[in-house]
Amino acid sequence: MKLKVYADRMSQPSRAIIIFCKVNGIQFDEILINLAKRQQLSPEFKDINPLGKVPAVVDGRLKLFESHAILIYLASAFPSVADHWYPNDLSKRAKIHSVLDWHHTNLRPGAAGFVVNSVLAPFLGRALNLQAAAEAERLLTKSLASLETFWLKGDAKFLLGSNQPSIADLSLVCELMQLQVLDEKDRLRLLSPHKKVEEWIENTRKATMPHFDVVHETLFGAKDKFQKQREMGTISKPGLQSKM
Ligand SMILES: N[C@@H](CCC(=O)N[C@@H](CS)C(=O)NCC(=O)O)C(=O)O
């Protein structure tokens, strides 16, 4: 039976799973769980993930959620996946786990917290929150500095001094891609002091092309829509109600 991937391409961990499958020739059916329509809360989807979050996968009798667990499972279960994504070498694997764990308590709450509370909240049925956005921005800035000065070592193209991408590169870069929906000056203010981070995003994009760009089309569509609304003055500032 073919792998089923339950995802919304506006969700950064969903994009990481879809890109990973495509790059590695894993056959799958993609099932849209539209977050803007709250489909993650439907009884049918909650039978797959009782916690009501995407991504989730079903492979035969296995139902699995949490993107890092899914990436590890796919890299281990599908022989078409090249070793560099999740190396057999245990010390390399352990280092990848170290980045993934760090990501979930640092970069992810920083980036997602800032983007949701400063732009996306009204589309997810919540109010924008200036204070939460400011707190998330502090964590995001600190996380970007840790990436620049620690996780991206020397002249290597990818995390942990590697010259080939791992599941950690894909997960973290997909997280950072959501900054695309910010106003350009906010995005530049956050990212441009971190040249290594900018180069690494581009390296990961190139290593996973053309799938990277195709899977990010939904996000780029949203970016254009938000930009037009900013120009027309119909998008709210954080802390105010959206006019949408
Ligand atoms: N730690 C989870 C995070 C999953 C997650 O937060 N998914 C978001 C979309 S990016 C979601 O489904 N949110 C819906 C909700 O919270 O109601 C993972 O890596 O898979």
UniProtKB/TrEMBL annotation:
Database matches in Pfam families: GST_C_2, GST_N
Gene3D superfamilies on file: 1.20.1050.10, Glutaredoxin
A GO term, aspect molecular function: glutathione transferase activity
Biological process, per Gene Ontology: toxin catabolic process
Domain GST N-terminal: 1-82
Alphabetically ordered keywords of this record: Detoxification, Transferase
Catalytically driven reaction(s): RX + glutathione = an S-substituted glutathione + a halide anion + H(+)
Family membership: Belongs to the GST superfamily. Theta family.
The protein, known as: glutathione transferase
Species, as recorded: Thlaspi arvense (Field penny-cress)
